[in-house]
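Hi Q.,

Before the meeting this afternoon, I wanted you to have the iron/sulfur cluster prediction in hand. No need to reply - just skim if you have a minute. The sequence and ligand are here:
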Amino acid sequence: MSKSKEKKMPKPKGKKKKKISKHYINSIVEASNPTERKIDFKQYTTNDLIKACANCSMCREECPTYVSREAESFFAGGRLRIFRTIVERNLPVTDDFVEAMYLCTTCKQCEDICPIGLKYVDLIEDLRCELVQQGIGPYGGLIGFSKSIHLNNNPYGEPPSKRKDWVEEGVTEVEKGPYAYFVGCTASYRTQSAALNTARILTKILGGIVLLGPDEVCCGSPIIRTGQIDFQLEIEEGKFVPFTVEDYITRNIENMITRDIEEVIFSCSGCYKTSTDDWPKYFSKEIPFKRTHISQFLARLVEKNEIQFKPLNKKVTYHDPCHLGRHRKVYDDPRTVLYAIPELEVIEMRKNRNRSRCCGAGGGVKAGFGADALSIAKVRVQEAVDTGADILATSCVFCKYNFLDAKKEMGVDIEILNIEDIVVDLL
Ligand code: SF4
Ligand code: SF4
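Predicted structure with the ligand bound:
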């Protein structure tokens, strides 16, 4: 039979096989400058976490960054495989490796699904610290977080003097405790309506609140999540200054202590998670005040029958922020508040509570990988639209910020609101 007349073998039916990612291969075999980019990973050779991964890939399809990139180096098991190979074979580190280690939202979906309960997020944050310490991380423009925080106390490059510019009528400030509202950088400069609505709610309920204003500094979340914890920061060519997250955490805590604060309320899930999980690690004494998310604060009042809401004849679906849900296990309180609103119909998305999809913004992904953050957010916004809800509600100013960007691109008809945006007009 001539070659041209040969019958081709029929292709097997079923799912198309995914291509092996160039990132996976590049990360292992390439190095732009192997001698300079060797990194001392000795301490990881005995690390049980990287050896424990069973390579089952059960965490792959659920990972938001895998959904965005469809490449083997962008989910927990794939990253661990690459990292283990580099450690065990003492291979040089490449730009693709650094990119793969930073394109992770630290959402913990992989941990929730992992059959052996591997604590992946602790490992990736630890590895990012190592990359920063050894002058290889953070990825791309993420160094801008620490540079801006060093200059302005926030990662957005905004002046500290404008931190309280969102304050308007309906907000009463008091000099001393017991209650303070920690606004956070995103609500102070980017989603200011959430800051204003939270402060108005707290004013109505408590009579007045302490706001630190220009004395409030970054909670530490963006720099902890991206490994910029304790290193020499180059502020101009050849000029280095010590940069440590401990300084910022200590300033926030001491500013609360001098104002006799007993309870601090947060509207950003990232700030709340950082204040509860991370602040105690970096503050030398016991933190003498309680830290509460606004959804917990409102749910407490609902449960004690100390608050009533006016009716709202709409449909809402609730998005669990990763840092409030999977990281802090706060699933019921936001729902308690929504269910307490008369006539409001609450519809769950298919993926909810511990199985909630990530919004795509966390872990430095929105700043470092804007297109991925947007594509991940679009998947979640579409899921909300598919429920037929009028409102996509969340409990995190950073999730809201990313969803609003996605909504703008998609042109869909759904309101994106934080719980406090809904509640403020119903008191
Ligand atoms: S933490 Fe989230 S983004 Fe990172 S690997 Fe796990 S599932 Fe993927
Ligand atoms: S689910 Fe767990 S064991 Fe399986 S690949 Fe992912 S991290 Fe490894």
